[in-house]
C-alpha cells in the first residue's frame, strides 16, 4: 500500500476498524445500561473547555498533560478534556446545583492526553464512569463498588477482582496513634506505597512496618490490619471495608492493599482498583473524593472510571465474525425488513456482479429463507 | 447561583443534562442500529489528526474552520475533526484499502468548528452517517436515500421530506446542450442557486431560466425538467432520480431543486437534503462524491451525514419523565435485580433519610411489588 504523508495518523492515535468498533459500541452500551438501571443518568460534556475551568476544579487534573490552544473566539486558553470526572463535577456544581442529593450521574466519552501513560502509547482513550454526588458514606462506597463490578461484567469482563485501599490511612494514623513529624509523612507514604520495608525504617516509619503485612486476599489481610490497629483509630474504616466486601459477596475476588497510594492521591477515605482476567493493568478505579461544589464549598462524592480499551481489544480478538445475509437483486424488500427486525444484518446487491462471499456474507436470501452459503 | 469564572463554558459549547443526554444516546443508537442492520459497519476515528491529512483528503473541508494546535510530540500541526466523512475516507483508503467493494461504513461522533454556522452558535455537534464506498450508481443512491430516511425515522423524526438536487447539472448542460463561456459558468451556477431570474439573465444564462421552474414537489418538477431537457443530455439523470424516488415510495415526501448547489459543491451527480417536521433547517444531507482512494486514485462513493442535535432537543422537550423505582433500605436485592432485568430503573436508599419523591422516584418497592407513589 502506498502510505503517503496524508495517510499517517499521529503517534498514539488510532482508528477502530469494524470488528473492534462494534465491540467498543457494545461494551459502552452495556456499561451505560448497567449504570442507567441503577438510576445513574447520562450526562454529556463538551470535548473542549476553558483550560482554567478544568484545571481549577480538581487537584487530580494536570493541565500540562492536556492538549491546549487559544480559542479564536474568546482568545482564552482552551484544552481538550483529559478526564470527564472533572466535567461531571462542574455540572453537579452548576447546571445540577439545585438537583436533589445524592445525585447519580454517568458518562462515556473520549479523553485525550499529550503523552501516553507508561507502557501504553495511546493518547486517546475511552472513559466510562458513574458518580454519586453528595455522599461518601459506606453505603455510597458499597453501591459504587457493586455497580462497577456489575458494569464490567455486563461488558464482558471475566475473573473480575477488586483491590481496596485506604488513601488517607497514613494521615489518620499519624494524627493520633502513630505520630510522625510533618516533614517525614510524605516519605513514609512513599515508602509504604513502594512496599519498601528498608526505606520505610530509614524514613522514620518503623512503627508502620506491620502495614506491609496487611496486604493480600481481603479476609486475612483485614484481620492483620485490625490486629495492627491497637489504638482503634481505624475501627470505623475497617468496619466499612468489611461491609463493602460483604456487599460484593462472591461477585468478585477482593484483595486489600491499605497503603497503596498511586492513583489515589485525591481520594479521601476509600479507593479501589478493578482488574479482570487477561488484561494487563487496571480496568478502572474509583473511590470517595471531594468535588468543588456550588460557590466553592466542598461536596462529598463517590465514583469510578473505567478505561475499557484493553477489554475491547481482548474481546474483539476472540470474537467470531457476525452473520451477514446477502439480498440478491430483486429480493422482496418486505421480507428483508422482517428479517432485519428479528436481528438479521443484511447487505443488498447493488448490481448483478456483487459476490456474496467476497462481501463477507454468511447467508443468502432465497425466496423467504436465509440459506447458509 | 454563584457563577464563577471556573464555571463558565466557552461560547457555543454545552453540557447535555440528563433529559437531553438520554435522548441523544437513544437517537444515536437508533440511527447506528438502522445502519448496522443494512450492513454498514461502525468505525471510530480519532478526535484529532494531523491538519494536513484532514485538509488534503477532501475539498469540502475548510482548515480555517478547525481548531488547530501544534502536537507537542511531533511538533506538527494538528486539528480537531470538523467532519468525520473525511476520516472515513481515509480509513477506506488505508486500513480498509484491501476490503472488498462496495464497502459499507457507519460512524457517530462529535465534530467541532471554531465558529458556529449561520444562526446556530453551536461549535460542537453530533455527526452520524453512513458511507457506501466504491459505488455512486443509481442503486447506491437509492440505497443511501432509503437508509437515511429509515434511520431518521427510527430516531424519532416525523414528517420526513427529502429534497433532491443534481449538483453537476450546469456543468453537464454547459458541456453539450447549452454552451456557456467558461468565465460565466460560475455566475450562472450562483444565480441559479440564488433562484434569481434577473441575475441569471444578466449573467448570460437566459437559456437556463426554465430550470427555475423545475422546482417543487417531485412528480411535477421532474416533468418540467424532462420537458426542458430537449437535447436529452439529462435523460440518464432524470431516469435515475425517478428510480430513487420510486425506491423511497411513500416513506417520505420528495421535492426537487435541481440547481441547488449550496452545500453540494463537492458532490458529483446526485445530492439530497433531509428535513423533518418541527425542525428549522436540514437534519442531514448526502449524495454521490469522490474520495481520494489508495495511492491517490479517485474512488466513487455515496453517503449521508446527519446532524441530529435539533431533533434531540425537540424530542427531549416533549418527553415525559421516566419511571424510577425507589428501593428502601434493606430491600431484597434479588427482587430489585429481577425488576431491573425487565426494564425498571431503580434508585437504592443510601440512608433512612432518603426521600423517594425528592429523588424523583415514581414508584417504591414494597415487598416484591413496585407501587406507584
UniProtKB/TrEMBL annotation, chains A, B:
Q: Which GO terms describe its molecular function?
A: glycosyltransferase activity; histidine-tRNA ligase activity
* BP term (GO), one: histidyl-tRNA aminoacylation
Classify the source by domain of life.
Bacteria
CC annotations in GO: cytoplasm
Q: Which UniProt keywords apply?
A: Glycosyltransferase, Transferase
Q: Which InterPro entries match?
A: aa-tRNA-synth_II/BPL/LPL, HisRS-like_core, HisRS/HisZ
Q: Where does L-histidine bind?
A: 83-85, 127, 131
- Identify the PANTHER family for this entry: HISTIDINE--TRNA LIGASE, MITOCHONDRIAL-RELATED (PTHR43707:SF1), HISTIDYL-TRNA SYNTHETASE (PTHR43707)
Q: What is this protein called?
A: ATP phosphoribosyltransferase regulatory subunit
Q: Which organism is it from?
A: Novosphingobium aerophilum
Amino acid at each position: 500500500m502506498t502510505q503517503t504523508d496524508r495517510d499517517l495518523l499521529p503517534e498514539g492515535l488510532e482508528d477502530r476498524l469494524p470488528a473492534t468498533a462494534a465491540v467498543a459500541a457494545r461494551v459502552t452500551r452495556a456499561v451505560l445500561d448497567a449504570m442507567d438501571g441503577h438510576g445513574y443518568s447520562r450526562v454529556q460534556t463538551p470535548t473542549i473547555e476553558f483550560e482554567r475551568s478544568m484545571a481549577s476544579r480538581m487537584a487530580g487534573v494536570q493541565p500540562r498533560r492536556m492538549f491546549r490552544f487559544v480559542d479564536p473566539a474568546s482568545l482564552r486558553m482552551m484544552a481538550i478534556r483529559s478526564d470527564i470526572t472533572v466535567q461531571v463535577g462542574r455540572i453537579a456544581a452548576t447546571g445540577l446545583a439545585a438537583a436533589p442529593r445524592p445525585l447519580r450521574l454517568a458518562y462515556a466519552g473520549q479523553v485525550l492526553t499529550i503523552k501516553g501513560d507508561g507502557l501504553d502509547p495511546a493518547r486517546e482513550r475511552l472513559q466510562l464512569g458513574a458518580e454519586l454526588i453528595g455522599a461518601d458514606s459506606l453505603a455510597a462506597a458499597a453501591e459504587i463498588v457493586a455497580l462497577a463490578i456489575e458494569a464490567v461484567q455486563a461488558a464482558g469482563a471475566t475473573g473480575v477482582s477488586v483491590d481496596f485501599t485506604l488513601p488517607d490511612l497514613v494521615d489518620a494514623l499519624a494524627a493520633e496513634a502513630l505520630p510522625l513529624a510533618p516533614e517525614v509523612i510524605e516519605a513514609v507514604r512513599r515508602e509504604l506505597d513502594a512496599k519498601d520495608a528498608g526505606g520505610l525504617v530509614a524514613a522514620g516509619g518503623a512503627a508502620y512496618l506491620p502495614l506491609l503485612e496487611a496486604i493480600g486476599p481481603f479476609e486475612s489481610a483485614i484481620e492483620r490490619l485490625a490486629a495492627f490497629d491497637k489504638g482503634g483509630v481505624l475501627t470505623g474504616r475497617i468496619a466499612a471495608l468489611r461491609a463493602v466486601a460483604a456487599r460484593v459477596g462472591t461477585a468478585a475476588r477482593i484483595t486489600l492493599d491499605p497503603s497503596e497510594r498511586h492513583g489515589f492521591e485525591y481520594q479521601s477515605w476509600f479507593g479501589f482498583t478493578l482488574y479482570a482476567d487477561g488484561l494487563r493493568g487496571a480496568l478502572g478505579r474509583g473511590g470517595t473524593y471531594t468535588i468543588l461544589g456550588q460557590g466553592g464549598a466542598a461536596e462529598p462524592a463517590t465514583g469510578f472510571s473505567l478505561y475499557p480499551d484493553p477489554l475491547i481489544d481482548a474481546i474483539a480478538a476472540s470474537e467470531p465474525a457476525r452473520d451477514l445475509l446477502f439480498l440478491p437483486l430483486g429480493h422482496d424488500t418486505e421480507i428483508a425488513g422482517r428479517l432485519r427486525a428479528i436481528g438479521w444484518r443484511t447487505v443488498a446487491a447493488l448490481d448483478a456482479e456483487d459476490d456474496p462471499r467476497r462481501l463477507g456474507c454468511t447467508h443468502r436470501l432465497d425466496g423467504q429463507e436465509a440459506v447458509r452459503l
